Amino acid sequence: MQRKPPVADPSGDNPRITRPKTWATGVPAVEHAMEYSLEQTSLRRTALTLLNMNQTRGFDCPGCAWPDPVPGHRTKNEYCENGAKHVNDEATSRRIRAPFFERYSVSELAGKSDRWLNQQGRLTEPMVKRAGSDHYEPVNWNEALGLLAGELRQLESPNEAVFYTSGRASNEAAFVFQLFARAFGTNNLPDCSNLCHESSGAALHETLGVGKGDVSLRDIHHADLVFLVGQNPGSNHPRMLTALEQTKLNGGHIVAVNPLPEAGLIRFKHPQEVRGVIGRGTQISDRFLHIRVGGDLALFQALNLLLLEAEDARPGTVLDHDFIQNHTSGFTEFEKHVRSLSWRDVRAATGLGRPEIEKVRDLVLRSERIVVCWAMGLTQHRHAVPTIREIVNFLLLRGNIGKPRAGACPVRGHSNVQGDRTMGIWEKMPQKFMDALGREFSFTPPAEHGWDTVNSIRAMRDGRARVFVGLAGNFVRATPDSRATEQAMRRCRLTAHISTKLNRSHTVCGDIALILPTIGRSEKDRQASGEQFITVEDSMSQVHASRGRLDPASKKLLSEVAILTKLARLTLRDRPDAADVPWAEFEADYNNIRQRIARVVPGFENYNERVTGPGGFGLPNPVNEGVFPTPSGKAMFTANEFQMLGAPEGHLVLQTMRSHDQWNTIPYTLDDRYRGIHGSRRIVLVNPADLKELGLTDGSQVDLIGVWRDGIERRADDFRLVSYPTARGCAAAYYPETNVLVPLDSVAEISNTPTSKGIVIRLEPSTRRAAR
After folding, report:
1. What is d(CA 452, CA 470) in angstroms, rounded to the nearest whole number?
2. 3-state secondary structure of 714
3. What gap in Å lies between CA 121 and CA 99, rounded to an integer?
């Protein structure tokens, strides 16, 4: 096959709709992965990337954070369709050079789609858009970094700078980045966790004392019962299906809870097994709860009430009284609260009848070891934190926390997003970390908490932040309230993005804008001491090495670590109050960074020695030792106020979602084949009964109008209605196209995460289509 040229920018006006699939993966996944990969690069490079991805001497998939099997249990093809697409999208042979920016102004690029921008290829040299200009132009590294350092040094306060991190940054780059920001004098370290699993961290910190999950891949394989709540593994982390198939083969059961029936939650055809190639594959879900958007809090409160009632009927046989008495607190208040639950409220919030929930209760009663997995379907609601606290209540009742084959499993969707937080990328790191950092580098880190992502946007909007530095990611398209975010970014004096490929954020500029191109995860990282490796932490706290195998896309690229250390030296020179950091040594040899991490971050002792072993090492989790570092020293039951997400008559509750052929904010094609959508992304899925009730017809064009208490009309124009088995009263559409509908101030309680899964909308005939 020959590589295809970059795609045109079709409008997607004529989508083709087919029946949704009832199974995921199989041979078509292999075909689609290879087709996309070979469109991007050569057969040789494709083989080199795929055969080295997720191998012990290879590189970590830059896509999701799903853990790898232990060494000796990995296949030669330890990747999924989406991982193959993502790595070869990064390893593409297409290049963006200076003439491209001569041809296209920033204004013209701003009118291109996310897909078109991504498909142009790899960035190859630093670029600057100077004040008053509408074009990027080449600039050498010394001038680019000197310009950024100069703007930082001229700020009246360090808190006028924002340092954003996307989850794909390595442990080494993340540690250096947060160290630089704090040595500069600010804790303004927003990251993509603020947009996704911040609610998980808040709830788990409060209830268990540790803000991450406590399960391993083996726990999922051998659990008696696994809940999959508010997630779509078939598209967002397909390798999870292999683990879930193992659960079923080992005799376990699975309950899926979701507003949409997803192919991967129905049946899985393993493309490397005979049963997945010529057989029917494996049924994944034993029960599917077709829940209304935002109804998960009510569901788990109902399950907890049913368990209490089962204990009433059979005293001493249902709850783990020894665990509750010796390892938890707050049970009495929790019990009193849950017993007041109204089944009428449960039905209204979930759309589920009591008999459906009782059948799940029966599965629970037959299961000794239970794991609950969840993703953004739970975390991006106003009541997300109470929902996850209620899941913890559910696990505590039968002692399913801190023991093998059981526990809480927030499934991270972005490579190393968990590792970045461990390395200190957080606007409010614990004082213990700050003290250790200060001792190690002989300075006093700033005490004032910084801004998270939403508050950073507010600060830029209000003129309180003037410089934005982004380490990887696509900030403008990952964030809520697209118009407000873009206006905020354009108020900055300078915006700078450390990136591998072009994206929408490069077209939404401050007065001055910098593109600082970096090597990718699959590429060799050569520094003064020789070839380097980086490390990452997966979704289950396993830390391992990653070694790129390709030559960099351009000789003018620098690594993330090199960019950040050079910037730090330029910015902090002549600053007697700055930290005592050997930036040049860090750049020359990443072992020097890891030696310092080992002295600052608990669990990383002998980092360099342990991480080079096969499979790396696991970080300790005190919960698995029966230790709960909460104020009481025990796991906390909580009483969570019942909340229901509803919409006025004539309105629906919209959830944003990812298509199958998409990685985070970037769609690779206009297709979503598991849901039967081909050739368009401006699609809104609505239950056929709701269409009839609203007087709308399948296939018609509508505008989506967000309804929010501030009275501002937020509109996403010209979407095609598709009759689809969504939960009643609910709708679904793709992000980032619908991020414009998410109000900046509509956030989760406590975590401040945007409520992207709970937007009240109304549908109106398309004004754009009518104008044509």
Report:
1. 13
2. strand
3. 14
Determine the Cα–Cα distance for residues 464 and 495; give it in Å rounded to an integer: 14
Residues 6+ away with beta carbon under 8 Å from 32: 81, 85, 661, 673
pLDDT value of residue 2: 41
Asked if residues 496 and 756 have their Cβ atoms less than 8 Å apart, the reply is no
Using the predicted structure, report yes or no on whether residue 566 has a pLDDT greater than 50.
yes
What is the rounded end-to-end Cα distance, in angstroms, of the chain? 40
The three-state secondary structure class of 167 is coil
Beta-strand runs (E) in 369-504 = 370-374, 407-410, 467-471, 494-499
Give bridge partners of residue 161 from the DSSP assignment. Answer: 467
Whether 665 and 503 have beta carbons less than 8 Å apart is answered as yes
Instruction: Look at the block and give the residue holding tokens 């993703």.
Output: 375
**pLDDT tier at 12, thresholds 50, 70, 90:** low
Query: Which candidate, 738, 735, 754, 722, places its Cα nearest to that of 663?
Result: 735
By C-alpha distance, which of 620, 668, 707 is closest to 119? Answer: 668
Element (H, E) at 733: strand 730-734
Residue pair 117/502 in contact by the 8 Å Cβ criterion: yes
**Pairing mode of beta strands 122-123, 95-96:** parallel
Contact (CB, 8 A) for 685 and 675: yes
The 10s digit of each residue's pLDDT in 623-633 is: 999 999 999 99
Q: What angle do CA 189, 734, 649 make, to 5 degrees?
A: 105
Beta bridge partners of 635: 328
> Can you give the pLDDT at residue 579?
86
| Residue 407: both structure tokens together | 């526990």
Phi and psi for 483 in degrees, rounded to 5? -65, -45
Q: Report the pLDDT averaged over residues 503-518.
A: 98
Positive or negative CA dihedral for 96, 97, 98, 99?
negative
Three-state secondary-structure class, residue 410: strand
Provide the 10 A C-beta neighbour count for residue 41: 21
Residue whose pair of structure tokens reads 């809104």 in the numeric block: 684
Picking from 95, 102, 112, 99, the residue whose alpha carbon sits closest to that of residue 134 is: 102
Asked whether residue 79 carries a pLDDT value surpassing 90, the answer given is no
Q: What is the DSSP string of 604-666?
A: -TTHHHHHTSTT-EEPP-GGGGT---STTSSEE------------TT-EEEEEE--TTEETTE
pLDDT reading at 345 higher than 50: yes
pLDDT averaged over every residue in the chain: 95
pLDDT in tens, 682-723: 999 999 999 999 999 999 999 999 999 998 989 999 999 999
How much of the chain, in percent, has pLDDT values that exceed 70?
A: 98
Rg of the chain, C-alpha, whole Å: 25
Residue 378 near residue 296 (C-beta atoms within 8 A)? yes
Q: Looking at residue 1, what is its pLDDT?
A: 36
Look up residue 292 and give its amino acid. R
Q: CB under 8 Å to 671, separation ≥6 — which residues?
A: 659, 660, 661, 677, 678, 679
pLDDT digits (tens, 9 = 90+) for 163-220: 999 988 999 999 999 999 999 999 999 999 999 999 999 999 999 999 999 999 999 9
Mean pLDDT across 612-624:
95
* Residue carrying structure tokens 């696509």: 474
54, 144, 445, 664 from 140: Cα distances, Å: 35, 6, 32, 31
Q: What is the mean pLDDT of residues 249-255?
A: 98
- Output the pTM of the full model: 0.96
Q: Going from the N-terminus, what domains does the chain have, and what CATH number goes with each?
A: 22-90 (no CATH), 95-194+416-622 (3.40.50.740), 198-410 (3.40.228.10), 652-771 (2.40.40.20)
